[in-house]
Amino acid sequence: DQHFTAGDKRTIVRYKDWNICLQVCYDLRFPVWSRNANNEYDLLIYVANWPEARKKVWKTLLQARAMENMAYVCGVNRVGIDGKGFVYRGDSMIFSPKGKKLADAGKREEVTRTCTLTRADLEELRAKFPAWKDADAFVISE
What we know:
There is one protein chain. The protein is of the alpha/beta class. The chain has one domain (11-134): Nitrilase/N-carbamoyl-D-aminoacid amidohydrolase. The protein has two helices and eight strands. Strands 1-2-3-4-7-8 form a six-stranded mixed β-sheet, covered by helices on one side. A two-stranded antiparallel sheet has the order 5-6. A hairpin with a 5-residue loop joins strand 5 and strand 6 (87-89). The longest helix is centred in the middle third of the chain and has 15 residues, at 55-69. The chain is globular, with a radius of gyration of 16 Å.
């Protein structure tokens, strides 16, 4: 709270015909912040400082966000030890809209992984199982 202020809107950027929703670390715990009403985005990216002690939650919630939002999800997490002694193991990964792990950067080392995200697969899933059409008009307000 001394260096950052809370946001008041979601950031969705368009890049090469993909809509990408950008989120940060703690947002992962609150599914409403990533709610993909009307397929507003195709890829959800979390940039995080998620500690090793909560690694199971990190992995589980990334996968859940992919399945519930019918979108690709990429979680990018740090590695190493911070100034307070908290250990970060990485576990950066990418999940398909069906929850399949497509890439895993591993543990405790800086590495780069790539994978191909297929637009046709995403559109086919959304057409075959259009659950997104049944979402209510939930709105966050004060």
